[in-house]
Amino acid sequence: MSRKNNGSILIITVFVFLLVNIIAINCSALILSNTRYTRYDYEEVYMKEQCLGKIELIYSNILKEVDKTLTDTNDYDSFKEYIVSDNFLNTIKNIQDDDLNNTTYQINRTDLNDKNNIYYEIISKTTYNKFSKQIVAYVKIKNPFQEDSSSKNKDNSQDVEDSEERDLNKLKSSDENIEVSQKEQEKIKNIEDINCSDLVIMFGYKEE
């Protein structure tokens, strides 16, 4: 009777031991799996923040440069000429004192046959622990000046140009309290009221 009891106890002990081992192995696998997923989620968030950080810096440069261009230009052609120039592109590319060392970027001007807007493509890419992530965003810069008015000025006859030059000389020779025409006042006021953030719009954001 004692031998039968000992045999039963041994079988039960072995069964319990095997059951405990199976549970322990499954728990370990689940923990490792969750750890890998948690680590991947962290890397995904980290890389996304790095890419977006670089894009935000470039966007900030564009806002500053557009605001400066509004001050330095006063017609459609001069505004557009500078916004599409290499000087503008090199200026917005100039990013200093940032800690996004693992992130590279590229800026391209895109031609969408839109005469009133100028488009740029920003590509930001970062690498971390053998993983990589890329984010692409597009920026639309609106020309605040009317093209028709500038074209009309170019089509004026020589007599009109001579008349304007004479008027300009009169303005220069007059005293500092000279009055600007109502039309010119409205033009200046409208430009001063423009917020550069309304002219620079980011769109088409996508992750790759």
Summary of the model, kept short:
The chain has 208 residues and is α+β, with helices and mostly antiparallel strands. It contains 7 helices and 4 strands.
Features:
four-stranded antiparallel beta sheet, rod-shaped, membrane, alpha+beta, single chain, transmembrane helix, transmembrane, 208 residues, 4 strands
Q: What this model shows, in words?
A:
The structure is a single chain. The protein is α+β, with helices and mostly antiparallel strands and 208 residues long. Helices cover 61% and strands 19% of the residues. It has a 4-stranded antiparallel β-sheet. Strand 1 (103-110) and strand 2 (117-128) form a beta hairpin. Helix 1 runs antiparallel to helix 3. The protein is rod-shaped, with a radius of gyration of 33 Å. The chain starts with a helix and ends with a strand. Mean pLDDT is 74; it is low at 32-37, 149-154 and 171-186. Residues 166-185 have a biased composition (Basic and acidic residues). Keywords: Membrane, Transmembrane, Transmembrane helix.
Write the layout of secondary structure elements.
Blueprint lengths: L1 H71 L3 H8 L2 H8 L9 E8 L6 E12 L2 E12 L4 H8 L3 H16 L8 H12 L2 H4 E8 L1
Antiparallel strand pairs: 1-2, 2-3, 3-4
Helix pairs in contact: 1-3
Keywords: Membrane, Transmembrane, Transmembrane helix
> How many helical elements?
7
Shape: rod-shaped
- Mean pLDDT, nearest integer? 74
Euclidean distance between termini CA atoms? 72 Å
How many strands appear in the DSSP assignment? 4
**Spatial order of strands in the largest sheet:** 1-2-3-4
- Content of β-strand: 15-25%
The poorly predicted ranges are: 32-37, 149-154, 171-186
The computed structural class is alpha+beta
Q: What's the SSE pattern?
A: HHHEEEHHHHE
Keywords: Membrane, Transmembrane, Transmembrane helix
Region (Disordered): 146-185
Transmembrane segments: 9-32
Biased composition (Basic and acidic residues): 166-185
